[in-house]
Design a protein that fits this description.
By secondary structure, this protein is an all-beta fold. It has one helix at about 1-10, and strands spanning about 15-20, 25-35, 40-45, 45-50, 55-60, 65-70, 75-85, 85-90, 95-100, 105, 120-130, 135-150, 155-165, 170-185, 190-200, 205-225, 225-240, 250-260, 270-280, 285-300, 300-315, 325-335. It has two domains: about 1-110, no CATH class; about 120-335, Porin, CATH 2.40.160.40.
Length: about 325
């Protein structure tokens, strides 16, 4: 009975795709995509908007869509009608099939999700401080992240640079750059392994260059619009070259944790990024970098953020503080 009713709706000629929300409102436009519990919909009155799938009561598409099934199949030129817990798809042959919502992984997936090329994403941001008066202070902080992701692998490059001056005297000049390659397992796309190579320098901490390299295992525990969480554990070789202190090198263990959450509000995102290294020869020489922040979208990819950065180096040379604390207001662009 329900199958016949929904099939009848699909057989009708609709002017556009239609969504009926649980609050009773009706949206008419074009379904852009649906994945990870979110729907993106293009409306003539508000442009492209996104919202939670849980807020949708029923959906009817007149525009043919591509459907990635949970079992890996890809179906083209489908029309969809979904009402409560029932879902019907109709292909070009007008043959209707009743499914469960859980049978569909994505609607109109991006090409890389189907094994076609890479998706490029990233962000660049800066924090600037200028103070004039009894003390002249100039601070510049720049951070960039670029990610190329395909169905089977991922390339990541992250970099940061900070330079500070007080009364025209440089007081800080730090930089770091890190490259990573991840390979995802076919058995479980949430599991991956990879290799990292990182370089960093802290001029006023006597560190001329620290080189870190080694393999790791990682897992994407959650990946949705509400919560993303990924963790990695690995082995590293670290070589440290100092300006005055004796150079050092050691083998150790590494970890990384990256978390973002939209639970604090619709227009804010909480995030925590942490990476660390344990020196197997001297566990007191642990290195831990933690960034905690709240980001706010502005418009068209531009964003702002308030964040705190804690950098702890248990193996810092004598006379250098082991803990650096930095608090920033950042402006940036995300793509």
């Amino acid at each position: 009975m329900l199958l016949a009713a929904i099939t009848g709706l699909l057989s009708q000629t609709l002017m556009a795709d239609e969504l009926i929300m649980k609050n009773g409102s009706r949206l008419v436009g074009t379904l852009v995509d649906a994945s990870d519990g979110e729907i993106t919909f293009d409306t003539p009155f508000a442009g492209v908007i996104s919202f939670k799938t849980a807020n949708v009561k029923s959906m009817y598409t007149e525009t043919p869509v591509t459907v990635l099934m949970a079992d890996g199949r890809v179906l083209h030129n489908q029309r969809i009608a979904a009402q409560q817990d029932a879902l019907v798809m109709m292909g070009a042959d007008d043959q209707a099939a009743q499914l469960k919502p859980s049978d569909i992984e994505m609607i109109n997936p991006e090409p890389w999700r189907l094994g076609d090329g890479y998706k490029w994403s990233g962000d660049i941001s800066t924090a600037i401080k200028v103070e004039r008066g009894n003390t002249d202070v100039d601070e510049l902080d720049l951070a960039v992240e670029s990610i190329w992701r395909s169905l089977v692998d991922r390339y990541t490059v992250r970099g940061a640079w900070e330079v500070d001056e007080t009364n025209n005297n440089k007081t800080q000049d730090d930089w770091k750059i890190r490259g990573k390659y991840d390979r995802f397992r076919k058995a479980d796309a949430n599991d991956y392994y990879g290799w990292q190579l990182a370089f960093e320098s802290y001029e006023f901490a006597d560190l001329d260059l620290r080189t870190t390299t080694g393999p790791y295992l990682g897992r994407q525990f959650f990946d949705s619009g509400t919560l993303t969480l990924a963790g990695e554990l690995g082995l590293v070789y670290v070589n440290e070259q100092f300006d005055e202190a004796e150079d050092d090198d050691f083998f150790g263990g590494s970890w990384e944790l990256r978390l973002t959450s939209g639970w604090i509000g619709e227009y804010a995102e909480f995030y925590v990024d942490q990476d660390g290294i344990i020196n197997f020869d001297d566990v007191d020489g642990v290195i831990v970098n933690t960034t905690i922040g709240v980001g706010f979208p502005i418009a068209d990819g531009f964003k702002a953020a308030l964040e705190a950065q804690l950098e702890y180096d248990g193996g810092a040379v004598e006379g250098v503080d082991k803990l650096d604390e930095t608090y920033r207001f950042r402006l940036g662009y995300q793509w």
